[in-house]
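Quick start: load a record and inspect it. Here is Phosphorylase:
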Amino acid sequence: MSYELIPKIDAILAVRGAEYQAVCRGLKGATTPTPPVVGIPMGSVAIRRELPSLLEAKGLNPSRVVLMGLCGALQPQYEVGDVVACESCLYVPEAGLEGKVVQHYSRDVALTEILAARLGDRVHCVNCLTRDRAVCSAAQKRHLGEQYRADVVDMEGYGILEILNQLDITVAILRVVSDDAQHDIPDLNAAIDSDGTLRSRPLMRSFLRNPLAAVRFIRSSLRGLKALQAVTRELFLGYTKL
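Running the structure step on this input writes:
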């Protein structure tokens, strides 16, 4: 890992719950001041509605932020635990076939590239697809990966970029793969509230309908969260900013 100076990061965004907690654990015990972590809702719809007020409530007026969390693989070469830096983000509405690409780099220096360089060979630079619903079947993952030439999928990236780019805020997206492209995961969509919260009871019902997939999903999620904690610690170890 390289220890060169990196631009000042004003905030880290992470989905509330396990991802937020993993990022906070990664920062725990740091010997130098680290950026505040802001918990955000799951999904671009809730993101668009809540993000500006969340930043305001935290008293933040950021210039640079990093979105950190988990993602799903759409290509077979990406494995659980792989760290990815999203070079572009493509949003495809559920009812539509046309996407829109947003390149997220600052006007003067590519923040994503700087952070990726700090992590070295561990990080893969990828194209990300954002969907409003979780992509749960392996067949759909492969189809989306082929159709849109995307490497990974998330539910927040495009919404974050859409809002923060309008506010002239530079964004980098660093994620960890938590489910691969070869296996189904339980259907999570019924468990996601309109406010972007994952509800435990509907989630358990989904797990019971597909217990083998649930066991695999839990194990891979734990591996992903452990890697997310580690990469957070690695990225901000001895954090020295420009």
